[in-house]
Amino acid sequence: MKKRLLLMNAFSLILLSGCSDDGKVTDSDLALLKTTHPPAVLIDKNTKENLDLVQNIEHDVEKMKELYDVAVVKSNGDTLVAYKVKHLQRFHMKKIEKNMTKMLEEKYPDENFIVSSDYKIFIEAVELQEKMKNPDFTDKKAKKKLDKIIKLKNEMT
Amino acid sequence: MSKKGNKTPEQQQYEKLEQKHELKRPVLKNCIRAFWVGGLICTVGQAITYFYIYFFNFTEQTAGNPTVATMIFISMLLTGFGVYDRLGQFAGAGSAVPVTGFGNAVISAAIEHRTEGFVLGVGGNMFKLAGSVILFGVFSAFVVALIKTLLIIWGVI
Asked: What does the alpha-carbon distance between residue A21 and residue A23 come to, in Å, rounded to a whole number?
């Protein structure tokens, strides 16, 4: 009995030691649990036009009533749109993705969209947006990270 | 001719006596237990999926494979420690239907035939029950994939 108690204590200690981080909880850590509303991010070409464009894209996507959280990241070539779907609407995930792609391509024909409802892609997008706040995080690094996210999105197995 | 007609009066009398003393199967209680334990196992699986999404480079789409492997591994360990047998007795189908039941079927057969030696005992009997799961699983997956391929070729989906 004593041995079992000791084992359980040791196990819970190991489990809890995971919590002893530096105590800083960022939005990307909680992106799975709560609505984060990350601002649209622009990599390279930081012009007013481009900024308006990303914000318009985010605004248009947010208008869809099936969604509750949208993250948009735009670089030179690609525009990543990650979103979270309301729980009961998850049955229509494919239809939502199809409609969104169609809407975006019709409205912004010059852009190349990568659309994803995957939580992981959303978390990574929020993380990228957080890292962009740091001045040491260069555009080159950001572009690399975005490419990594897109590669992750296209992975099937 | 009905079954009852074949029976002698003694047999019929015995049947009546047996019915009087037979314990009723608590179907509703069993269903509720199976529901809760099965749901609990699935919740653990969902937690493991999120663990892989958060801490590793897995997306919602790709996190399924390592999750299944981990769940099977855990149930194999629990079977070895004799915990899963008790859970199986308590929850019935609730513990047998999820993928953890597969791990249990493999290891319990291996333990049962351990005394017959490693080759003919463990090796020969390990997949006695799980073998049919693999066979019909692979076969039905093949049939479904065939149907899907044909539907894609014909342009239905």
From this structure: 5
